[in-house]
Amino acid sequence: MDYRTALTTCTYCGCGCNFYLEVLDGQIIDTIPCKTSPVNEGKLCVKGWNVHEFVQSPNRLTRPLLRKNGAFEEASWDEALDFTASKLREIKDNCGGNSVGFLSSAKATNEENYLFQKLARAALGTNNIDHCARL
User: Fold this and answer.
1) What pLDDT, in 10s, does the model give residues 87-132?
2) pLDDT the model gives residue 135
3) DSSP of the chain, one letter per residue?
């Protein structure tokens, strides 16, 4: 039996709460709040307590999918990123940067959301950005 804990940051909102994931034989089994975290001081909201459940869901996508011949097929990360970049470039060239909107996820860190908005503003030239986890 291999038991470990891994300190991490919650991905549900921008607060930055810390907790430990309990890992037993390579499977995440529970969440323990970090009592020394200056952000959450050993407390967690209901989402934080259950954050570990979505990681191992059988319904979770783990590989990119591209629509080919009317159906979704697995693709490599390089293929999916190349396709996405080319489509965004095509839309920007044909319709302008403001024809694209960006919606970010509550399951991303503040740093990831910052980079996301930089991509929207600097690369595509749009301020059409929103986020589903406003505090």
Assistant:
1) 999 999 999 999 999 998 777 777 888 999 999 999 999 999 998 7
2) 53
3) --EEEEEEE--SSSS--EEEEEEETTEEEEEEE-TT-TTTTT---HHHHTGGGTTT-TTS--S-EEEETTEEEE--HHHHHHHHHHHHHHHHHHH-GGG--EEE-TTS-HHHHHHHHHIIIIIS----EEES---
pLDDT beyond 70 at 133 = no
Which residues does residue 19 pair with via DSSP β-bridges, in sequence order?
Answer: 8, 33
CA angle at 127 for the pair 124 and 130, rounded to the nearest 5°: 110
The b/e string for 67-93 (b: 16+ C-beta within 10 A; e otherwise) is eeeeeeeebeeeeeeeeeeeeeeeebe
In this prediction, residues 40-62 reach a mean pLDDT of: 89
Distance CA 51, CA 21 (A): 9
In order of start, what are the domains of the chain with their CATH numbers? Answer: 3-53 (2.20.25.90), 76-131 (no CATH)
Mean pLDDT, range 46-70, rounded to an integer: 89
